[in-house]
Amino acid sequence: FRRVLFRSVPQDGVYVGRLTPARGSALLSAISVGTNPHYLGNEQRIEAYVLDHEDLDLYGRVVSITFEHRLRGQMVFSTEQELVQQMLLDVEEAREWAADGVRERRA
Fold first, then answer.
1. Which of 20, 46, 81, 97 is 20 to 30 A from 7, comparing alpha carbons?
2. Is the dihedral angle over the CA atoms 90, 95, 51, 59 positive or is it negative?
3. Which of 70, 69, 47 shows the shortest CA–CA distance to 59?
4. pLDDT tens digit string along 25-60?
5. Is 88 helix (H, G, I), strand (E, B) or coil?
């Protein structure tokens, strides 16, 4: 059983945002909101991929997620390879968007 509290969930798609563990700092993330149509899912999920932190184990931990920018809508892919390729592009675009934001805040 997991308890999930939502204040506001955006429409299905992929976003740049931050995942913040209960006792930790905000971490840049690529976030998917949707039903995982490639795997014939029908339950809405929120999945966050934290960039540059492959060693994190957050299963069962309390986190908060903030959405900063929508990258694209939900898509269905013909192959697993197409899905993985798009995920890599999403991560790169999330990095670029975050870097542009840092440059704008410093200017």
1. 97
2. negative
3. 47
4. 999 999 999 998 878 888 888 999 999 998 888 888
5. helix
Q: Are residues 79 and 61 in contact, defined by beta-carbon separation less than 8 angstroms?
A: no
Residue 105 clears pLDDT 60, i.e. is over it: no
Q: Which one, of 88, 89, 90, 81, lies nearest residue 32 by Cα? A: 90
**Kindly report the CA angle at 75 between 62 and 65, in degrees rounded to 5?**
20
The predicted model scores a pTM of 0.84
Q: Under the phi-then-psi rule, with left for phi > 0, alpha for psi from -120 to 50, and beta for the rest, what region is 105?
A: alpha
Q: pLDDT over 90 for what percent of the chain?
A: 60
What does the angle CA 98 – CA 16 – CA 51 come to, to the nearest 5 degrees?
Answer: 75
